[in-house]
Amino acid sequence: MATHTDIRPFKIAVPDSQLQEIRAKLDLTRLPDELELPIGQEWEWGIPLAVLKPTIEYWRTKYDWRKVEEHINQTLPQFTTYVDSANHGQQEVHFVHKKSNNPNATPLIFVHGWPGNFLEVNTPP
Q1: How far is residue 101's CA from residue 114's CA, in Å, rounded to a whole number?
Q2: Long-range contacts of 34-43 (CB under 8 A, 24+ apart)
Q3: Distance CA 73, CA 91 (A)
Q4: Rg (CA), the chain
Q5: Sign of the Cα pseudo-torsion (66, 58, 32, 116, in order)
């Protein structure tokens, strides 16, 4: 019988409905007119439309989450377990346990905060 502290294998599996919702939101995106700002201040009021428009188009038409999801699941051994927190009780944590090919390697724990994640140090597909 599994306990709350057992380490369980985990695979990322985003539901199709969530991907469809993101695509629909991108399709419905309406952008304001570009602000005329002095050179060097283009980012003072947020992301410039010259950057945002191609980013939205890329996410709408070219970004392949399933390819990324498959890459993550195939290259990073993922797990979940629960840890006790003095102030918050048991909290579920997700982690990657990637073993080195070097038998003399020093173990490393990579701990990140929000909004960061372990993918920042992973090679994308």
Answers
A1: 29
A2: none
A3: 23
A4: 20
A5: positive
- The C-alpha atoms of residue 35 and residue 122 are separated, in whole angstroms, by 36
Question: Can you list the residues of the chain whose pLDDT is less than 70?
Answer: 1-4
pLDDT at 2: 55
Task: Give the model confidence (pLDDT) of 35-50 as tens digits.
Answer: 888 999 989 989 999 9
Single out the residue of 64, 81, 83 nearest to residue 72, CA to CA.
64
Q: Find, among 35, 10, 36, 1, the residue nearest to 96 by Cα.
A: 10
Give me the helices (H) in 1-125, please. 16-27, 49-61, 65-75
Q: State pTM to two decimals.
A: 0.77
